[in-house]
């Protein structure tokens, strides 16, 4: 049995989340970095041999190919590769983590990703900057979900699903960190999110900073920097 | 005997229908708790105590409350209320179902959901005007991009994950059934596998499927007739 192959790019939020989770879990993997900026995921070879959906992250486990970060997390957890602390085995605790992982797709993830994409990525590719009104709408949609993180998910606990770090926190933090590159500073309006992000980073380091090295570099803001 | 699980849902919500069908097909015992979205019952303080996110579906099992249909599916499967055929126990087979369930959120569901919301839900409630034709074309294009992916990658064996119905088929097909309300019908010519699959899912999930889709089918028929 050879270790799994992990295809990822640290510019992709779910790629970073799994990268941090694998490192925290001591999971051995063959490092298969895919440079999205060079379109490496769009080649025929990638499509035919690695992931038909031409996205990262994905894995190959001795011939078994799997995409979708949350599905990968569950698969590796069921194989005993992810510690219970990060993804609980007891189904009631697991349900709390699952509830967040399912919730985030069309709420936190999509709105943070669109904010990043339309304010940072698209102008870089097309040379066109979005209008102030467009930026305002993107911000409102994103903050609608940051409000829910601040007021509901972090209402009573130190982490999103309880008193300790789980995979849910790591997926969420990676989405929020992405917006740094579009010059958004979540810490200004959201004191609970700010304190929680600090806890997540501390609990995940040194891997958190490794995974975010490009985010820090591009945004020009290291973890210590005051924005 | 322990009290049965309370299941809160509305048939106008696609994930509600998918999970309700999953429960029925698994012969689960649950307490039926309809929530009328058209009366905005999900926005009451009372319902907020059931589900803090004020959405359907949701479940209450003793003191345990949760939302999010796919997370609920997994919880219910662990409690033996969703059959192994619908949500396999085998590691790799389950991961294939999960792969679809995670994929659909930002793809099939988002495209169908936006189309439904902007072309049917908001105009019918007087919240927003009916979108212009070019906007509608864009919604349809987004939906069809996803239908094309289904056609090309997912339906080689009749169902999404092989030759048997799983919960993935239910979650996938209900999204497409929903946009019948916008008078969208899947073209058998352009998407033969998808069209056939929708029919197979219906057959495999009947009589419950027709029951859960009664409103969608009735309203879409009325709309089609009004147009004639």
UniProtKB/TrEMBL annotation, chain A:
Entry-linked Pfam families: GST_C_2, GST_N
Subcellular location: Cytoplasm
InterPro entries, alphabetized: Glutathione-S-Trfase_C-like, Glutathione-S-Trfase_C_sf, Glutathione_S-Trfase, Glutathione_S-Trfase_N, GST_C_Theta, GST_N_Theta, GST_Theta, Thioredoxin-like_sf
Primary residence: cytoplasm
GO MF annotation list: glutathione transferase activity
Domain of life: Eukaryota
Keywords recorded for this protein, A-Z: Cytoplasm, Transferase
The keyword Cell cycle belongs to this UniProt entry's keyword annotation: no
Record keyword Chloroplast present: no
Subunit annotation: Homodimer.
Family of this protein: Belongs to the GST superfamily. Theta family.
Protein's recorded name: glutathione transferase
TrEMBL record, chain B:
Protein name: CG30000
Catalysed reaction, written as an equation: RX + glutathione = an S-substituted glutathione + a halide anion + H(+)
GO cellular component annotations of the record: cytoplasm
Pfam families hit by this protein: GST_C_3 (PF14497), GST_N (PF02798)
Domain GST N-terminal as annotated: residue spans: 3-84
Keywords: Cytoplasm, Transferase
Primary site of residence: cytoplasm
One Gene Ontology MF term: glutathione transferase activity
Domain GST C-terminal intervals: 90-220
InterPro entries noted in UniProt: Glutathione-S-Trfase_C-like, Glutathione-S-Trfase_C_sf, Glutathione_S-Trfase, Glutathione_S-Trfase_N, GST_C, GST_C_Theta, GST_N_Theta, GST_Theta
Compartments it resides in: Cytoplasm
GO biological process: glutathione metabolic process
Family named by the database record: Belongs to the GST superfamily. Theta family.
